[in-house]
Amino acid sequence: MLNNKHWYDMEFADSEDLHALILEAGKVRDSYWGDTVTYSRKVFVPLTNMCRDECGYCTFVKHPDNPAANIMTLSSVSETLRAGDQLGCKEALFSLGEKPELRYPKAANMLNALGYVRMLDYLRDMCEFTLRETNLIPHVNAGTLTETEIKQLKPVSASMGMMLESLSMQLMRRGGPHYRCPDKSPKLRLQTLENAGKHQVPFTTGLLIGIGETWQDRIDALLAINDIHRQHGHIQEVIIQNFKAKPGTAMASVIEPDIDEMLKTLAVARLLLDPSISLQAPPNLQQHHSDYLAAGINDWGGISPLTQDFINPECAWPNIDTLAESCTAKGFQLRERLTVYPDYLTSEYVDASIINRLIASADVSGLVTTFS
């Protein structure tokens, strides 16, 4: 799986020649991923929109005093899962704010009313319910996780994820977007990547660009991700996500990264990261699909026929047929994948109770079986 060639070249990373960067990134992508570009058909389950962190760009999180603050009940989770199942989704993406019960008594009381003390215990049971009652396979985005928590969640989820976002400590200072965000500590987030690697969990991570980090901060974060992957081999994909300014947030007036900045970051990420790591860019946050393909991506991430992007609800998912046409126009075929990439469809990475269900949905290439 791992390629020992070190793709990173500081001259490329500091190059102002965007065209040359893109050409080189495309070659790397083509050499490993060929002409196939993938996406995951999924349903999003925002288990709770409460969080003990207060990111300066987030509209997903609601304070417990807000009438919109909630924890999804079993009935609500079940309804969402079954609707996604009927629409042919393969993946249930559980996303949730980090440990709100540790900061807010109201959040703890809401959780207690459901019979739980910890959100992670409730999450585990909802993943187990998903496997027992539907055809969907859970993917968990629960933020920072200890080794014990990863061991708790692995038997009921095929993969996990957490955006590294940035390694910049500057962002955590007063006035920064990660001030009053204990879980955005770079040390804690890197430790989560390490913990996942120790327990061989197929893992998704990535960068959020445009939140105040420097270019060198991005390089440092990508190098750190790559180093951890070289130790454990478990980083199945890296997302390069552009910041979106939202009314009512502390960063509402911050200028978003432009397309050239996004393309340069994507291209350098492709040149820096081991070729076996899938490179993804969300297709709903900008409409430059052809440019993204040229810059070296091979995956569009999760697209849902049912649920919105709860983090960026103003940005609708693209139509799959339209996205496929964009891929075809650039010489690629769009294929549906599972929550676990083909290289990780083994009992080494996926719990024995889940692996056979994944393999049953895959063809010889490890992607979702297509019927003509």
TrEMBL record:
Coiled coil: none annotated. It catalyses: 5-amino-5-(4-hydroxybenzyl)-6-(D-ribitylimino)-5,6-dihydrouracil + S-adenosyl-L-methionine = 7,8-didemethyl-8-hydroxy-5-deazariboflavin + 5'-deoxyadenosine + L-methionine + NH4(+) + H(+). Its EC number is 4.3.1.32. PROSITE patterns: RADICAL_SAM. InterPro entries: Aldolase_TIM, CofG_family, Elp3/MiaA/NifB-like_rSAM, F420, rSAM, rSAM_sf. SMART domains: Elp3. The keyword Nucleotide-binding does not apply. Pathway: Cofactor biosynthesis; coenzyme F0 biosynthesis. This is 7,8-didemethyl-8-hydroxy-5-deazariboflavin synthase. The gene is cofG.
